[in-house]
Specification:
The complex is a heterodimer of chains A (338) and B (509). With 338 residues, chain A is of the alpha/beta class. Helix content of chain A is 57%, strand content 11%. In chain B, the strands form 2 sheets. A 6-stranded mixed β-sheet of chain B has the order 5-4-3-6-7-8, with helices on both faces. A two-stranded antiparallel sheet of chain B has the order 1-2. The chains are: A alpha/beta (338), B alpha/beta (509).
Chain lengths: 338, 509
């Protein structure tokens, strides 16, 4: 577990997940108060990534439950393994005969059988689905309930017991309570409003597109081999594209795709032609592409030399910070490769 | 701390942010974990625990800044040359007193319950030197403001002394309040009389407080600090009261009252005969059959439908696989969801009567209807139509409380707002029905916004009062909107609606 907010931050950064203070605060609170976190935000801002990084930094297992319409508790929680039960009764037929042999009448036999009932409704015959797995985990697991807004409202209601007490009720066995309450991360793209009851049980975190500095940091971490100057240009272009009124703004994932394709193309600097050629990487709608190209054309008419220098001057602090860490990241990256 | 948090929660609630008691408690527990060292952290903590709706974040930010903003901003840019100033930051103590006045109308509300865990709390703040460093940070009022919490805790320790001071102030304020006959219940704003307050409170009580702190073996430095600040506390009081009033004013919500005249004139326009109402209901019922929700992907067990082999097998394992109980499943039809956007501008005022009735009927017939009205701005009125009678709802819409109904209509802008704020409520099951004449009075048509809506919705139906030949006249953007909509209908009255219903039914057969 984490001892301070700063520790959360540095350990997530070790997992190549760059975050700001707000996020670190919420994660810290979630681990301390044992409360689930509901992460909302547009697609591609690193909601799912957060859970992965968190699991990595805690050194624990990540259990993932992808929600979809029609998801029910047989898929999310547990299911009885009927075929195994049947198989056992077949194999154990003789033994059952032995047990029931000395009984006098039918009533007695039924009574004896009932006493043995728990054999067949035990955890042996239970297929664990993600939620039960998280509850029964020997150590604090990280449970990611992805895109909860896609699941039905009934499923949300079903989650309530689990989210508030980290326990589930299985009719045949009773209540199973978590010894090590898992860290639960729920994500939502807000395709529909979640119920108040669910929200009340969670800490709420709104993720948005990252600031320039953070995004540059992410590009450096995730797209190694990109030149600093190019990364700067790329990030500020992406940031200004997000300001445009697009149907789908480029997400972090698209920034990284773009960075990687530029690295592959071996481009030293970002030029207007290059943007035109690679536009399909960052925007996915025709109308958006037109808007972006029009914007790039209008930007291109300005003298380009002035901007990089002034940017350097302004962001000196952030830059320095980045460099201070960079050796650590390099080492990590190398370690990761080896 | 509890007092501050619960008071803050009260402020949030007054501004229609829903914060449950459980969330308030969560916030307290969370603050214990993170401490009160940094303003930003406290803000994030409170937001994460209490605000669960992204739309509310903005108001929360505003209220948070307002509520914990008693530190006068102007002190920030001042170049503090005098070293002394750094050592005795004067502002934090002021804050503390202000906080207490804040709770002044209910002195008994000041709870004494934290006696038990308090000493540890205090120690934490003292040990970590939170207060002293907080005062010598140049131009960083952030942390200074935060020391509000810590000081509150320290001073609360000595309830009596503080209580005495406060009672005195309270007393003064009450008298002034009584005098102020024109605005009963409000504090007097005149600074002339406000000046008197602090002078009477005076040193003896403060000395008492300091003595008490000595007895309690609180950090000597801190006491010295407090003594040094007492002067400032007293000097600052009038300012403080003024600032508090200012804050109260900002925190208070403005309420407008509506004009009776408007209502009466509209009432005449909106009367609907019983026959008309019946006809309309019948027509809408026919339409209702046509506006379907999408089929859900989910197969549900049912008494009719197809045999599902896997489910049958699994369910009949208990009979050794002999299918005694076949399991039938079929696709259920999702409930239709409808979003209504209704133009209530002057150009369609004569039809608004008809439309609003239509809306009222639809809301009572469909299970999930969200209704919006627009002129230039968009406002949701679902609640109003649900809670009130038909006339009440219609009155409310035109009263001016919901939106400004007397400007030129601008569908482009309203559609843009809908996309920005309510698009999340539209999904593949939603039918969007737009009631309007598509006249933007020369403003941008914003077809993109409608496309965006159409992209998310199952279908878009536009009901316009104007026949097609009129669309080319006078700033009407219907020709632009038409290709985006799945269906455009010209409806002026109940008969028209009935024939549209007839058409729809025919097409289906």
């Amino acid at each position: 577990m984490f001892s301070s907010i700063d520790e959360v931050r540095s350990r997530l950064e070790n997992q190549s997940y760059v975050c700001d203070q707000g996020l670190a605060t919420v994660v810290f609170l979630a681990t301390r108060l044992n409360k689930p976190v509901l992460v909302e935000g547009p697609a591609g801002v690193g909601k799912t990534e957060l859970a992965k990084a968190l699991a990595g930094s805690l050194g624990n297992e990540l259990i993932r439950l992808q929600c979809y319409e029609g998801l029910d508790e047989a898929k999310a929680l547990y299911e009885w393994e009927y075929s195994k039960q049947l198989l056992y009764t077949q194999v154990l037929r003789e033994k059952i005969g032995e047990v029931l042999g000395p009984t006098k009448d039918l009533r007695d036999a039924a009574e004896t059988l009932r006493a043995q009932e728990s054999v067949f409704f035990s955890e042996n015959f239970l297929v664990e689905r993600p939620i039960l797995q998280a509850i029964q985990s020997k150590e604090t697991a990280v449970l990611l309930i992805d895109e909860i807004d896609r699941a039905d409202e009934e499923f949300e209601a079903f989650l309530l017991e689990f989210l508030s007490d980290y326990q589930v009720s299985i009719p045949e066995i009773g209540t199973v309570k978590a010894e090590h309450p898992p860290v639960v991360i729920l994500t939502s793209n807000r395709t529909r409003e979640l119920s108040e009851a669910l929200k009340r049980r969670c800490l709420h975190l709104q993720l948005d597109y990252p600031s320039k500095e953070v995004e540059r940091e992410i590009v450096r971490l995730k797209a190694p081999g990109i030149a600093d100057a190019l990364a700067d240009e790329l990030v500020s272009t992406i940031q200004s594209i997000r300001e445009l009124d697009l149907r789908k703004s480029p997400s972090i994932g698209e920034t990284l795709d773009w960075a990687q394709s530029l690295v592959v193309l071996g481009a030293p600097r970002l030029s207007k032609e290059l943007i035109e050629q690679t536009i399909s990487v960052i925007v996915k709608f025709d109308r958006d592409a037109e808007k972006v190209l029009a914007y790039v054309a209008s930007e291109g008419s300005r003298p380009p030399t002035a901007s990089p220098q002034s940017r350097h001057g302004q962001d000196y602090g952030a830059h320095d910070h980045g460099h201070g860490h960079s050796t650590v990241y390099d080492n990590l990256r190398d370690a990761g490769k080896g | 701390m509890e007092t501050v948090v619960s008071d803050f929660v009260r402020v949030l609630r007054r501004h229609n942010l829903r914060v449950s008691p459980a969330e308030g408690l969560d916030a307290l527990r969370a603050l214990e974990q993170v401490g009160l060292g940094e303003r930003a952290v406290v803000k994030d903590t409170l937001r994460a625990t209490m605000i669960k709706d992204t739309d509310d974040v903005e108001s929360f930010d505003r209220l948070f800044d307002l509520y914990f903003s008693l530190q006068p901003e102007r002190e920030k840019p001042q170049l503090q040359v005098d070293i002394h100033d750094h050592d005795h930051g004067k502002t934090p103590s002021r804050l503390e007193v202000r906080e207490d006045i804040e709770g002044e109308p209910q002195p008994e509300g000041h709870n004494h319950s934290h006696e038990a865990d308090e000493s540890t709390d205090i120690r934490r703040f003292l040990d970590e030197d939170r207060i002293v460093p907080s005062q010598d940070i140049h131009g960083d009022p952030e942390s200074m403001r935060l020391s509000l919490f810590s000081q509150q805790l320290i001073l609360n320790r000595k309830q009596n002394a503080m209580q005495q001071i406060m009672q005195k102030i309270t007393h003064q304020l009450r008298i002034q309040r009584a005098r102020n006959i024109f605005n009963p219940g409000e504090l007097v704003t005149s600074t002339g009389s406000g000046q008197e307050i602090p002078l009477n409170v005076s040193a003896s009580e403060l000395q008492g407080l300091v003595d008490h702190l000595h007895e309690m073996e609180v950090d000597e430095d801190l006491i010295r600090e407090l003594t040094a600040q007492s002067e400032n506390i007293l000097r600052g009081l009038p300012e403080l009261v003024a600032a508090m009033l200012e804050r109260e004013k900002n925190l208070k919500r403005e309420e407008k009252d509506d004009s009776d005249f408007r209502r009466r004139s509209l009432r005449k326009l909106l009367d609907f005969s019983a026959t008309e109402q019946r006809e309309m209901e019948a027509a809408i019922r026919r339409i209702a059959r046509q506006i379907h929700g999408a089929h859900t992907r989910r197969l549900k067990q049912d008494r009719i439908g197809r045999i599902s082999v896997p489910h049958t097998l699994r369910n009949n394992i208990r009979y050794e696989g002999i299918p005694f109980q076949p399991v039938l499943r079929r696709r259920r039809e999702g409930r239709p969801r409808v979003a209504l956007l209704c133009d209530v501008s002057i150009s369609t005022r004569n039809l608004a009567r008809f439309w609003l009735h239509l809306i009222y009927q639809m809301q009572s017939l469909f299970s999930k209807v969200r209704t919006f009205v627009f002129v230039a701005d968009l406002a949701e009125v679902t609640q109003i139509f649900e809670e009130r009678t038909m006339h009440g709802a219609v009155d409310e819409v035109f009263s001016g409380n919901v939106l400004d109904a007397d400007v030129n209509s601008d569908f482009g802008r309203a559609a843009g707002q809908f996309v920005g704020e309510h698009l999340s409520s539209v999904n593949h099951r939603t039918t969007v029905v737009i009631l309007g004449d598509g006249r933007n009075n020369g403003k941008s048509a914003n077809v993109e916004a409608l496309e965006e809506i159409a992209h998310h919705a199952r279908q878009v139906i536009w009901i316009t009062p104007e026949p097609k030949w009129g669309w080319a006249l006078g700033g009407c953007d219907m020709p632009l909107y038409e290709p985006v909509c799945d269906r455009v209908e010209v409806v002026r009255d109940v008969q028209g609606l009935a024939s549209v219903a007839e058409d729809l039914v025919k097409i289906r057969v």
